[in-house]
Amino acid sequence: MIKRYRLGNPIKTYATVMDIPVEKETLPDWTIDKESKTLKRTLSKEAIVYGLGETLRGINKRGWTYRSFCSDDSQHMEDKKSLYAAQNFFIIDDEKPVGYYWDTPESVEFDIGCTDIDTFIIKHQELDVDIYVCIADTKKEIVKEFRKLIGLSFIPPKWAFGYGQSRWSYFTADEVRDLVAKYEEHDIPIDSVYLDIDYMDRYKDFTINEKDFPNFNDFVKEMKEKGVHLVPIIDAGVKVEEGYDVYEEGVKNGFFCKKEDGSNLVAAVWPGRAMFPDFLNEEARKWFGDKYKILLDAGIEGFWNDMNEPAIFYTEDHLKEVFEEIEKYKGKNLDIDSFFKFKGIVGDIDNNPEDFKRFFHEYEGKRIRHDKVHNLFGYNMTKSAGEAFKRLSPDKRILMFSRSSFIGMHRYGGIWTGDNKSWWSHLLLSIKQMPALNMCGFLYSGCDLGGFGADTTEDLMLRWLEAGIFNPLYRNHSAMGTRRQELYTFKRVEDFKNIVDLRYAFIPYIYSEFMKAALNGEMYFMPLSFEYSDDRSKETEDQLLVGESIMIAPVYEQNATGRFVYLPEDMKMVRFRSLDDYDEEELTKGDHYVKVGLNELVVFIRPGHVLPIGPKAKNVDDIDYSKIKYLTYKAEASDYELYNDDGLTRIQ
Ligand code: GLC
After folding, report:
1. Residue 363 pLDDT
2. Distance from Cα 233 to the centre of ligand 1, integer Å
3. 404 CB-near residues (< 8 Å, 6+ apart)
4. 3-state SS string over 343-366?
5. Of 318, 240, 249, nearest in space to 287 by CA
6. Could you tell me which CATH number the domain at 2-150 has?
7. To test ligand 1's pocket by mutation, which of 168, 305, 351, 403 has the most ligand atoms within 8 angstroms of CB?
8. What kind and span of H or E run contains 252?
9. Which of 203, 249, 267, 299 would you call most buried, defined as having the most Cβ atoms within 10 angstroms of its Cβ?
10. Distance in Å, CA 446 to ligand 1 centroid
11. Are 99 and 146 in contact (CB under 8 A)?
């Protein structure tokens, strides 16, 4: 059951798809203080809070403050409050579990036992919100109720479950050819290569750098014949350049975001001076979406949308102010106060909160200042693409995932979790993030495997490929200037090959469980406590249930040769050294120290369940379903219902 309560006069977000009448009485269990724009609710000592999608810290969100404000911040440190998303759904699991969806584009602070360990405090800027309360007996059912409210999750083509190789950037078509040849040579399966910003002509959306990627359409075809899909990036900012059609059309039709005086906002991102399409304006959204046709016509079948919080290096107006300010410091003795002020003037230039107040959107017939609807920007960029794909490719699925997101966007695309680092702590974080993303409808998701920023190492890369082996989005991506992390660059290539072979062997299961979750509004990754009610399961944050059959307990510590694993019931452990070399062992409920060599992968099959294992494959298309084996524990192979389809026909 879902109830809806309203405070103030919230701006429509289109996050939900059901029309639920607003209750007359006030929201139960919370005290509302209109003056401080704050809501409070007591948490018992045992209460656990789940959810909030893409955020930092644990599966249990207690003990920290999270701010729903889509932020371009590549430093995913423990002290941060926001990442790239605003996904305001959470479950308070106290005496009885209750789910809440806080539907507002406002930046809201969720202080979950941070200021006061026993109190959940929600602080608004405005107190304009629709609060949906999801009531059911279990956490799983609460999520299902919520997912009915927000509509079906995005379903990508099946090839998007294969291994993807990415780098900022592959600079030429030949570099990509060479990469694909190396994967072939080492017999490592691969389905996609990602094109970062350098495939474009000077970072102009929907253009091709003809010099380095000549005859692009032929190149796309050539790669596809090798079973490789090229997936280009699209950025939110449109380069300001006379003669560039996207820019000129946008200006002519008034589709860019405007300042108070009606002139277009000029902000800088990768292409230098750029303008932002007003994705909240339906017409502009349609216009921008139709631009994807250029690349669809070139044979492209997938995209990633980036810099759509939006990321702003600087606005032209603010830059002017900065230069004026700095001038005042010339020749001065910079003391403790003035030095830090001086440093801040330049240091705070990017993504400056004041810049988000300089421009406006035409939204639902009203002019709204950006900061009031900031969290809807990336969502509507991806909606622009998603709506266009339905028009331009009505029968075939197109891959789409975005950096910034808001609930509702899950109907149009998945997400990746942005610029993590090649740190062991970020490997662990990537495990903890998955269930919360799933709760919010973001099923097709994953992190940059191996870590984006900083240099990776051979052991970290391998452990990350193992830990993420069930992530729907399985993409290795890294930043410019960091150590190369294409798998063939490492010494023990064989170990990497074995792991990626296993990934492909699991795809029949991954796809089957993903699709069931997507079609039934369920979770694909779950914390143990969503299935088991014992105290240990509630505390376990470094193991997950994946689909109906298995539990994973990845190794995420440097130099570790094993780890403790908690089994909430008897399970069968399968230890893979490679696809053809594995053994099975029955383990009893309780704690076990499990040795896991760097080149090994362990999974745990739940009693009464089955894990299908496919044969060796070159890519997703090559998976021979007639050769599937079934690993079972206290079950028959026939107990498992394997979902499959052509992997391409559009479902929603
Ligand atoms: C952003 C993205 C990253 C990309 C880079 C260059 O930092 O998050 O994935 O590689 O921009 O486009």
Report:
1. 97
2. 9
3. 70, 84, 85, 308, 309, 310, 377, 378, 379, 381
4. HHHHHCCCCCHHHHHCCEEEECCE
5. 249
6. 2.60.40.1760
7. 168
8. helix 245-253
9. 267
10. 15
11. yes
| Whole-number Å distance between alpha carbons of 400 and 305 | 7
- What is the distance in A from the centroid of ligand 1 to the CA of 270? 10
- Testing ligand 1's pocket by substitution, the residue of 72, 167, 196 carrying the most ligand atoms inside 8 A of its CB is 196
What is the crossing angle of helices 282-297 and 377-392, to 10°?
50
Is the distance from the beta carbon of residue 306 to the nearest atom of ligand 1 less than 6 Å?
yes
Place of tokens 């609460």: 142
Ligand 1 neighbour 419 (Cβ under 6 A): yes
Which atom belonging to ligand 1 lies closest to the Cα atom of 196? 12
Report the C-alpha gap between 11 and 322 in whole angstroms.
33
**Same fold: 2-150 with 510-639:** yes
Helix extents (H) in 151-199: 173-185
């809201």: which residue's tokens? 108
Across-strand partners of 565? 592
User: Taking the model in full, what pTM does it have?
Assistant: 0.98
Interval between CA 422 and ligand 1 midpoint (Å): 15
CA–CA gap between residue 180 and residue 194 (Å, rounded): 12
Return the H-helix or E-strand segment holding 150. Answer: helix 139-150
Residue 109: CB within 6 Å of ligand 1? Answer: no
Cis-peptide into 310, omega within 30 deg: yes
Say if residues 445 and 435 touch (Cβ distance below 8 Å).
no
Distance CA 201, CA 253 (A): 23
Q: What angle do CA 614, 491, 425 make, to 5 degrees?
A: 75
400 DSSP β-pair partners: 303
DSSP output for 479-543: -TTSPP--GGGSS-HHHHHHHHHHHHHHHHHHHHHHHHHHHHT--SEE-GGGT--SHHHHH--S-
Q: What is the pLDDT of residue 652?
A: 81
Ligand 1 binding pocket mutation candidate from 307, 420, 480 (most atoms within 8 A of CB): 307
What's the mean per-residue pLDDT of the chain? 98
Q: How many residues does the chain have?
A: 652
Ranges of residues in the chain whose predicted pLDDT is under 50: none
Question: Is the C-beta atom of 54 inside 6 A of ligand 1?
Answer: no
Q: Which CATH class name applies to 510-639?
A: mainly beta
Distance 507 CA to ligand 1 centre (A): 27
Distances from the Cα of 228 to the Cαs of 59, 160, 641, in angstroms? 35, 11, 30
Closest atom of ligand 1 to CA, residue 166: 10
- What is the 168 CA–ligand 1 centroid distance (Å)? 7
Handedness of CA 519, 522, 523, 528 (dihedral sign): negative
| Domain range list for the chain | 2-150, 510-639
Whole-angstrom Cα distance, residue 605 to residue 592? 15
- Per DSSP, the residues of 403-450 read SSEETTGGGT-EEE--S-BS-HHHHHHHHHHHHHHHHTT--SEE-EET
Q: Whose CA is nearest to atom 7 of ligand 1?
A: 419
Distance from the alpha carbon of residue 261 to the mean position of ligand 1, in angstroms:
32
